[in-house]
Write the structure tokens for this entry.
Amino acid sequence: MSTKVIAVANHKGGCGKTTTVVHLAAELADLGNKVLVIDLDPQANASLHIGLRHPSEVETTSAELLVGDLSLLSDALEEETNFKNVSLIYGSLNLGKTEDQLKDDAARPSEELSSKLELLKGLYDYILIDCPPSLKLLTSNALAASTHVIIPIESGSQYGLYGVTDLINHLSKIRRINPELKLLGALLIKHDERQNVCKLIRDEASTQVGELLNTTIPMSTKVNQAAILQQSLLVLDKNTKVRKSFQQLAKEIVSRVK
């Protein structure tokens, strides 16, 4: 199978991007895939969860990789993590400066990640990219390098869909660079089908995004617990509803990207 690169993007903060990346990575790995997570968020929450070291102790992160040359790739790859069969390229606070450096120095500021990932194609089954909450150059790099994109949307919030049309417009701009980019759909997070607000968001998301993933992720305190303990839901408590939802999501994605 050729490597599938999936960006998890939404410029709204707190909508579940990192949670999705982390637990989807664990479940894809559990299905027997080799998985790499690339953390492009300056907050580096995915790295804090998956990584064995604190991002501030890591010399070569996605920030250095984006503005540096290809030789940094092997330094940036961390094979040993808290999750079985999941490798990591750490994020870091330095990513805040990376966008300016790319603007100033890169010949093609949106395509730096894409050129670096060429070497990894075939080594991993899935590469998941955690995007920052903005539509600037870091997210553009992720989308330009990806085969697919998932848009997580917080279902229980009336602001859940705020700005989604901007993101959809941004995708069509990126498709000029990366015509292969496919939208897997919106993923409803903290979704409860019994609540009217969730049903409204679901219908509106379907209209605005045009494609919904069948799997939805319920609200659960286990998600925060897993982050604090640096574990996957799979290890923490594999029989919870939220863990089974992520397992279902992984299976759905495997069948959709085939």
Observations:
- The chain has a mean pLDDT of 96.
- Residues 30 and 84 are 8 Å apart (CA to CA).
